[in-house]
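A.,

Following up on our hallway conversation. Structure tokens first:
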């Protein structure tokens, strides 16, 4: 096996790595089952709320509740419950919530677990928190006119959701209806609190938190399936989302990238319908999912040079846009973040990668999830090849130099054709499952995905990789 111990010694203490371990801000890829979120000197004994949410931050309903807890700074405990489409739910949760749906919260009396109360349904939870934690900042309007406007906006938010479903998940879709709903939301932004950052005024309100996670998914899926750029088409919606991304740390932390949403939405809602033929090189989906001829290639452009439609403004750096030194430092930080995750988890990752060539019984709906995959018959030599490929990638990420891509060792380059195909299938299985924010922040995730892509191309050779790429991509 490759010498990971030597490589591990180069990771601790690097800029940007230690900062991932601690800090007051929410970091999703460092969240864990049972984690406590404490604010303003609170201690564990002060925690009354337990939030049950999915571990990948893919559930928009969970996201809105967690944003509320973070903004109000209510101490809470996190319990991770996977979506049913990604595997079986824990028995204890099904006993508590027979439907298995989430989010859910339990709330106990201060200082004890007596008379613990269960609340489900995200809006019910959110209004409960507003009513029962009055000492924390209110997110509700206090006047009658504001309350009426809030109720109208909550109804409109569901109308937009319904029109999104109608356009994305039905043959032919209904673009006219979806655009009209988006226009209604844009008009509300312009008219209810003109000149203000948020839906109800200068401060974030419950309406913003309820709607923003879904608009994040609308913009991603509309680009992926329909070649529709919502934020460019509706400047008021873009300005509203930018304000949330700029000012609300929990929204930034919980945001996914376009690729993660494109792959996480279908198991929850069904497959969307493409407006352009699958595989069309001029379609946005070929850029988003890496299937295009020029997608996910090293060297990557600086984040600030990516097209405006491509990702959330939260993923863009704040440094001087014209400073190449800052751009290079930013890239090195991103590489170190990706390297840290590889080095810390390489043994598990090898086993995970070879699922791509193992036995994969389809026991769940999510195409990118294989909870019952069996890799016991994968040859040990193949696992060593995959380990070596991951090591070569990690070594490049840690090196902090200007080498355009990983240097792949001769033993991988000289393997026979079938072995190369298995190595590439394993690495691409991993590449296609790097999720944001679950595994890494977007800037580091894009480097890792492109690095895996580069290693495969080096192993297979450009011509063979062009053939393998479509074959591997279609099988995952």
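Then the amino acids I'd put at each of the 476 positions:
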């Amino acid at each position: 096996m490759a010498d990971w111990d030597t490589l591990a010694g180069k990771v601790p203490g690097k800029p940007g790595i230690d900062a991932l371990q601690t800090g007051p801000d929410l970091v999703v890829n460092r969240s864990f089952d049972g984690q406590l979120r404490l604010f303003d000197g609170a201690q564990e004994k002060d925690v009354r709320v337990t939030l049950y949410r999915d571990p990948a931050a893919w559930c928009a309903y969970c996201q809105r509740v967690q944003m509320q807890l973070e903004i109000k700074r209510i101490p809470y405990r996190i319990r991770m419950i996977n979506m049913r489409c990604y595997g079986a739910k824990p028995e204890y949760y099904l006993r508590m919530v027979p439907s298995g749906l989430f989010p859910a919260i339990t709330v106990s009396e201060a200082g004890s677990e007596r008379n613990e109360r269960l609340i489900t349904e995200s809006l019910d939870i959110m209004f409960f928190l507003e009513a029962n934690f009055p000492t924390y900042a209110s997110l509700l309007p206090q006047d009658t006119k504001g309350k009426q406007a809030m109720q109208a906006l909550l109804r409109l938010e569901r109308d937009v959701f319904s029109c999104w479903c109608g356009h994305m998940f039905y043959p032919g879709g209904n673009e006219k209806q979806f655009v009209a709903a988006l226009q209604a939301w844009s008009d509300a932004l312009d008219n209810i609190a003109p000149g203000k950052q948020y839906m109800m005024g200068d401060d974030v309100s419950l309406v913003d938190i309820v709607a923003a996670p879904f608009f994040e998914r609308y913009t991603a899926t509309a680009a992926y399936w329909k070649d529709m750029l919502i934020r460019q088409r509706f400047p008021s919606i873009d300005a509203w989302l930018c304000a949330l991304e700029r000012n609300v740390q929990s929204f930034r932390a919980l945001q996914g990238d376009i690729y993660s949403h494109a792959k996480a939405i279908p198991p929850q809602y069904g497959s969307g319908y493409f407006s352009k033929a699958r595989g069309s090189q001029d379609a946005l989906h070929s850029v988003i999912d890496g299937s295009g001829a020029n997608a996910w290639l090293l060297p990557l452009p600086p984040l600030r040079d990516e097209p405006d439609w491509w990702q959330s403004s939260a993923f863009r750096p704040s440094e001087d846009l014209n400073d190449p030194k800052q751009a290079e430092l930013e890239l090195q930080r991103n590489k170190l973040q990706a390297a840290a995750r590889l080095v810390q988890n390489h043994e598990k990752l090898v086993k995970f990668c070879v699922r791509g060539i193992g036995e994969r019984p389809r026991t769940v709906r999510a195409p990118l999830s294989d909870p019952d995959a069996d890799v016991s018959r994968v040859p040990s030599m193949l696992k060593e090849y995959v380990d070596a490929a991951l090591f070569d990638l990690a070594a490049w990420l840690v090196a902090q130099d200007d080498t355009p891509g990983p240097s792949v060792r001769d033993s991988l380059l000289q393997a026979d054709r079938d072995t190369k195909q298995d190595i590439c299938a394993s690495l691409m299985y991993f590449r296609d499952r790097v999720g944001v924010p679950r595994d890494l922040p977007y800037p580091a995730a894009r480097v890792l995905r492109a690095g895996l892509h580069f290693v495969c191309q080096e192993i297979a050779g450009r011509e063979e990789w062009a053939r393998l790429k479509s074959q591997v991509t279609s099988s995952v």
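The chain has three domains: 31-132, 144-269, 296-475. Curious whether your intuition agrees with the design.

B.
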